[in-house]
Specification:
159 residues, alpha+beta, Arc Repressor Mutant, subunit A, Gyrase A, domain 2, 2 domains, four-stranded antiparallel beta sheet, two-stranded antiparallel sheet
């Protein structure tokens, strides 16, 4: 087998279809068992590019799944901007508040809109803040958890 990015991503898709995998570390371990030399950062990028999300089967446990059928190149670029620009998340009732680097909230809101998450009723973006409306506080918290998987290192503000 040729060790290319495309083949690695095909292997990741095969893994998540055939096994219940809930962490990036598990994916790294399973790839290494298959002789892939990967880091967690590489797997994180692959997860973003493949459009993988954590889904729940039983309301309690989560696993990775491809829910979007993959993303277009433009959507991948927006998600990349999102992953680099987000500084923090917070929830207030049914709202998720996302703080970004100055000037990048509109691009990040566009990325959120392109993800077509069912929890999102709408987004409003200022210069460095996004308000995302959900139908309930539970859905807002779930959305925030989903978006955490798309971001690089950031602080999460919680009460």
């Amino acid at each position: 087998m040729k060790y290319s990015k495309k083949n690695r991503q095909k292997t990741i898709l095969s893994i998540i279809v055939n096994q219940k995998v809930s962490t990036q570390e598990e994916i790294v371990d399973l790839l290494r068992e298959r002789k892939w030399q990967v880091t967690q950062a590489t797997v994180s990028r692959d997860i973003r590019e493949l459009g993988l999300s954590k889904v729940t089967d039983d309301g309690v446990s989560h696993r990775y799944a491809q829910t979007s059928g993959g993303r277009s190149n433009t959507e991948n670029k927006l998600v990349t901007v999102f992953s680099k620009a987000v500084l923090s998340f917070d929830c207030a009732s049914n709202l998720v508040i996302v703080k970004t680097l100055p000037g990048l909230a509109p691009a990040c809101a566009s990325a959120i809109d392109s993800m077509n998450y069912p929890e999102v009723l709408g987004t409003i973006a200022g210069d460095d803040t996004i308000f995302i409306a959900s139908r309930s506080a539970i859905l807002a918290n779930h959305l925030m958890e989903r978006m955490k998987t798309l971001t690089d290192d950031f602080p999460i503000t919680e009460d």
